[in-house]
Hints:
Radius of gyration: 22 Å
Largest sheet: none
Number of helices: 10
Helix content: over 70%
Strand content: under 5%
Order of helices and strands: HHHHHHHHHH
Mean pLDDT: 74
Number of strands: 0
Structural class: mainly alpha
Amino acid sequence: MAARTPFAIRIAMSLQRGWVRPLLFLCLVITLWDVSIRLFNVPSYQIPTPTAVLFALYTDAGPLLTQAIPTTIAAVAGFILSAVFGILVAVLIAGSRSVESYVYPLLVFSQSIPKVAIAPLFVVWFGFGILPKILSAFLIGFFPVVVSAVQGFKSVEPEMLAVVGAVVGEFVGSNNGIGFLLQRSIGNFELPTMFAALVVLSLIGVALFWILDVLERMTIPWHASQRHQLIIPA
């Protein structure tokens, strides 16, 4: 078998990096997106082209970044509240079978209630400020934190981020934030702006998850979720 060239070796090493493969897959998805729109002549008022979304990201960069600030604040504050109260409740549940028998079934039952149905009540009680968004993020993040902590303080599932709760709160009643911008762009049929807002929202979620992942590696490197990265000497 012929020896690999230095260039081929560098390419192979680059593909082993954790961020390269998702990036390649993202490029493939964007390419298929663009080709499908051109091939099937999909009108722009249904699905915008990737170029239109990138243009909206450029032209609306100011409003998008401005609206991203309250969304991020609400998501972080909601996560902190869910972590603090969730761990306290989990300690009580894990330390007492009686508390578990009374409280845990009610927590499970509460998950059957749609959070979108509760969020409007927060608007009625607390107005259109940032507090309803924080409480929505807290509700969505609280149960996963409790369950994870009860089961040995395992890592919270990546998809259960508090960003979702913040956006839910912005949808039902808010005059700022990415959720508000999404709702306004949908009402005005500004699909490129809507997709650009979704991109910004995804970036916020990825950034928050990356920060938590770094903190986890620094504080609990012995955790099961990090064992695959530990080097065990022979």
